[in-house]
Amino acid sequence: MQLVKNIEFSRALNLKDLVKYEDGQIVSRTLTQLPAVTITLFALHQGEGISTHTTPGDAMVQMLDGEGEITIGDNVHVVKAGETIIMPADIPHSLEAKENFKMLLTVIKRG
Fold first, then answer.
1. pLDDT per residue over 8-63, tens digit each?
2. d(CA 105, CA 30)
3. 3-state helix, strand, coil in the chain (%, to 5)
4. List of domains in the chain
5. Which residue among 42, 45, 57, 80 has its CA within the 20 to 30 Å range from the CA of 21?
6. Neighbour-count burial for 58-81, b at 16+ CB within 10 Å, e otherwise
């Protein structure tokens, strides 16, 4: 059984090329979804967002392209390609695409 899916094995890939921007859409590609960890690629078109929510684990965003606005609790962060930010478990957070951006989201849940 493969633990990672929707991606070629044994080949160097550029993650940002694996999801495409679509007008007015949030595009996602799940790479793994296990009880303790999920890894998902996202492409958010300008003006799209993910509303305020919490997760049962720490969520690490690795920005692959563009720039996004990430709110964690009461703090707003502008995160750019090449940067990473952690959204702690159980703290409300949201994302907004002020411009197109792509990210790799890794959520590590408590065991």
1. 999 999 999 999 999 999 999 999 999 999 999 999 999 999 999 999 999 999 99
2. 10
3. 5, 55, 40
4. 15-109 (2.60.120.10)
5. 57
6. bbbbbbbbbebbbbbeeeeeebee
Locate 100 and state its tokens: 């197109």
Given the DSSP bridges, would you call strands 101-109 and 57-72 parallel, antiparallel or unpaired?
A: antiparallel
90: Cα separation from own chain's centroid: 17
User: What are the DSSP calls for 71-85, one per residue?
Assistant: EETTEEEEEETT-EE
Number of helices and strands in the chain (H, E): 0, 8
CA distances from 33 to 22, 75, 80, 90 (A): 24, 29, 26, 19
Query: Residue 48: is it exposed, middle or buried by C-beta count within 10 angstroms (0-12/13-18/19+)?
Result: buried
pLDDT at 1: 76
